[in-house]
Amino acid sequence: MSSLQRSISSAFTIAEMEARKLRHDSTELWMRTVQPALWLLVFGEVFNAIRGLNLGGFSYIQYIAPGVLAQSVLFIAIFYGITIVWERDVGLLTKLLSTPSPRISVVVGKALAAGVRGIFQGIMIFALALIIGVNLRFDPLDVAGVLFVSVLFAMCFASLSMTLASFLKTRDRMMGIGQVITMPLFFASNAIYPISLMPAWLQTVSVYNPLSYVVDGMRAMLLTGDYSGLPVDMLVLLAFTTAFILSASVLLKRLIE
Fold this sequence. Notes:
There is one protein chain. This protein is mainly alpha-helical. It has one domain (about 5-50, about 55-255). It is about 75% helix and about 0% strand. It has twelve helices and no strands. The chain has helices at about 5-25, 25-30, 35-45, 60-80, 80-90, 90-95, 105-130, 140-170, 170-185, 200-205, 210-225, 230-250. The longest helix has 30 residues, at about 105-130.
């Protein structure tokens, strides 16, 4: 077996181990669905009455549904470093890094586990949208595409979270930095309002915000059906994901030093 095959096999083995934890205790996943449900049921329904926004002929609740999905995946992934710190504290991470598995396999495996959580969030948002009558595109290929983007996005920010954990090293600090990162990313994106409504400086920030590209891709598949910008959205997301996976792989050992 080649080194590449061993790395891939190790990554999937670690992801499977993490997924088994979710099967035994899925409480966290269900708790994480409360926030996106509130965004759709309260925020979305209230602002649905606003008629002055140019949303391309879509209702406000249709417009924000992809953004709420992306936000829920972001919130799951960015706090993944807290789990890594806990595993360091109880000695699990030291044992894992002492195995023959390459560090990049450890990072990818754990990032994939965050992706599983992202799929769960996607399914919950789809179910909620159906229940409350949000008119989205539920073509099987579009749904599969959105779930794939959710996995990739979760991997991206789970890897960023592991990178930050290598520097911060405590759960309290990770909780604080997670809050600092998520809200600015969310409000400096096109998740809940069009970029055209932002002041010029914030529009510039949104260009460098990966969440904007994720929401844009999800919105194309779930709402507009315009795939012209999808290749750029995917390339940007892949670039950020690759960069964060590599940085986490290089820096993860700092966490146990």
